[in-house]
Amino acid sequence: MEYTTSVKEIMSSRVITVQLDDKLSAVKNIFDSCKIHHLLVVDDIELLGIISDRDLFKALSPKIGTSTESQKDAATLNKRVHQIMTRHPIVLHEDATIDDAIGLFNTNIISCIPIVNSANRPIGIVSWRDILKYLGAIGRVNLIQGN
């Protein structure tokens, strides 16, 4: 089955960005306060990289916020975004289809795809969860219609 619907139809247009030199403490605050799993790294407005909540988890000391936290543990919060981000993320352009996104998820070990415009500015993000929601909705529609 081919899915020619545009990724713009299912992407989250709520894109939260950070800069290369932002501290991981700021990244941690964003992840702690927002229900998201990925931040896009931009320089001005051009996409340069991506940070997942798992990237942050690996970069920070597990003792942060505990009674055994040391100065060395706390210092991991002072690392910078550029030190842990994934550079040159796999992206799709705004005119791509859901089929294109499925192809990238099937051939790469990624959990989201930034959607960019022709100037490489992020306009949205598609996760594998978005794909599953879409496929589930299509399946329900087909079931209701008797297809």
Which keywords apply here?
21% strand; 147 residues; CBS_dom_sf; single chain; arabinose-5-phosphate isomerase activity; CBS_dom; alpha/beta; Arabinose 5-phosphate isomerase KpsF; three-stranded mixed β-sheet; CBS-domain; 6 helices
Topology:
Layout: E1 17-19, H1 24-33, E2 38-43, E3 46-52, H2 53-59, H3 71-75, H4 81-84, E4 86-87, E5 92-93, H5 98-107, E6 112-116, E7 122-127, H6 128-145
Parallel strand pairs: 1-2, 5-6
Antiparallel strand pairs: 2-3, 3-4, 6-7
Description of the molecule:
- The chain is an alpha/beta fold and 147 residues long.
- It has a single domain (7-145), classed as CBS-domain (Roll), CATH 3.10.580.10.
- It is 37% helix and 21% strand.
- It is built from six helices and seven strands.
- The protein has helices at 24-33, 53-59, 71-75, 81-84, 98-107, 128-145; strands spanning 17-19, 38-43, 46-52, 86-87, 92-93, 112-116, 122-127.
- The chain has a four-stranded mixed β-sheet with strand order 1-2-3-4.
- Strand 2 and strand 3 form a beta hairpin.
Content of β-strand? 15-25%
State the distance separating the first and last CA atoms: 13 Å
CATH class wording: Alpha Beta
At CATH's second level, what is the architecture? Roll
Biggest sheet strand order reads 1-2-3-4
CATH topology (level 3) name: CBS-domain
Biggest pleated sheet: 4 strands, mixed
Rounded to an integer, what's the Rg over CA atoms?
18 Å
Overall pLDDT score? 91
Q: What is the ordering of alpha helices and beta strands?
A: EHEEHHHEEHEEH
**How many strand segments?**
7
Helix content: 25-40%
User: What structural category do the secondary elements indicate?
Assistant: alpha/beta
Provide the CATH superfamily: CBS-domain
* Total count of domains: 1
By DSSP (H or I, 4+ residues per run), the number of helices equals 6
Q: So what's the overall shape? A: elongated
Uncertain parts: none
- Assembly annotation: single chain
